[in-house]
Amino acid sequence: MIRPTEWQKSSFSGAEGEDCVEVGSHRGTIYIRESDTPNTVITTDQDKLAALIQGIKAGEFDHFMD
User: Fold this and answer.
1) Cβ–Cβ < 8 Å for 55, 61
2) What is d(CA 57, CA 25) in angstroms, rounded to the nearest whole number?
């Protein structure tokens, strides 16, 4: 599996750059991983990630934060 050479972390991540979800892309494939388990990677595409982000912004997943 080809993976991105650069991963982006949220500016809201932990102070040490830990406890965060990282996102990268390569040729239209989006890669997502957790910083504490970098060898476990899931993939999706831009349209599906965009739908997820829209749902997050709309509060559809807020109940997971309870």
Assistant:
1) yes
2) 21
- Going by C-alpha positions, the residue among 59, 3, 61 that lies closest to residue 32 is 3
Nearest to 13 by CA among 4, 5, 23, 3: 23
| Predicted TM-score (pTM) above 0.85 | no
Rounded-to-10 torsion of CA 60, 47, 50, 23: 110
Which helix (H) or strand (E) element contains residue 51?
A: helix 46-57
| Separation of alpha carbons 28 and 30, rounded Å | 6
Question: 23: helix, coil or strand?
Answer: strand
d(CA 33, CA 47): 18
The model's pLDDT over 6-35, given as tens digits with 9 standing for 90+, comes to 899 888 887 666 678 999 999 899 999 998
